[in-house]
Specification:
two-stranded antiparallel sheet; 6 strands; 7 helices; alpha+beta
Length: 214
């Protein structure tokens, strides 16, 4: 990954792009949300890139296009310095996008932390339902509104994963799933020329008042 030249206020020199990426990720987590990719966001600080990276929005046959096709995020200079690329090297499609990885981290950590008060409580059906309701409310909150961060999620109790022996040993298994929001990585626009707007040519003349003026 290219290195970047920081603004004078940070001192002269070269910054490691990985450090900038980590800072950008943290900044986006707080300002927009962990569901937003670090790609195509103007970076605050860097004024240049140490290596020339060719890029064209309409032509993938560039340095950036080549790197992206190999799941490598790079940097471009277009109205500011930006990271360009969303992919990870993971062979698992569930973690193909950087935001899918980040979403998984946040969801898992948040649910585990929220379940802390339930640990060592009396294991009854009521406790299991409270846990399910808590996770369900969390997933629903993230799946609605203008600032939604998930497309949806669900939680359930699977009896086959909770045999009597496990329950008697103080073990409870709760399942949940969710659908992360992918970034718009590839926008295809189909342009066509048509004559259909000429069909009402005479009506448009009449409606324009040309005949009356004549």
């Amino acid at each position: 990954m290219p290195e970047v030249t920081p603004k004078p206020i940070y001192g002269d020199g070269i910054l490691n792009a990985a450090a900038v990426a980590a800072a950008t990720r943290a900044h986006l987590d707080k300002t927009i949300g962990w569901h937003k990719s670090i790609s195509n966001v103007v970076l605050i600080g860097p004024t240049g890139i140490s290596q020339v990276v060719t890029w064209d929005l309409e032509d993938p046959d560039t340095d950036a296009g080549y790197l992206n096709s190999h799941e490598i995020t790079t940097m471009i200079q277009h109205n500011g310095i930006r990271f360009w690329g969303n992919r990870t090297p993971s062979a698992d499609p569930n973690f193909a996008f950087e935001v899918f990885v980040r979403t998984a981290q946040v969801i898992k950590d948040s649910i585990i932390e929220a379940c802390f008060p339930f640990i060592d409580q009396v294991l009854t059906p009521f406790l299991a339902k409270d846990i399910i309701d808590s996770i369900d409310a969390f997933l629903r909150r993230l799946s609605t509104g203008k600032e939604r961060r998930l497309m949806g999620g669900s939680v359930w109790f699977d009896p086959s994963l909770n045999p009597t022996e496990s329950l008697m040993n103080g073990m409870l298994c709760i399942d949940y799933d969710y659908t992360p929001i992918p970034p718009l990585e590839n926008l295809k626009l189909n342009q066509r020329i048509t004559g259909r707007f000429m069909i009402d040519f005479s009506k448009l003349i009449t409606g324009s008042g040309i005949e009356e003026a004549a």
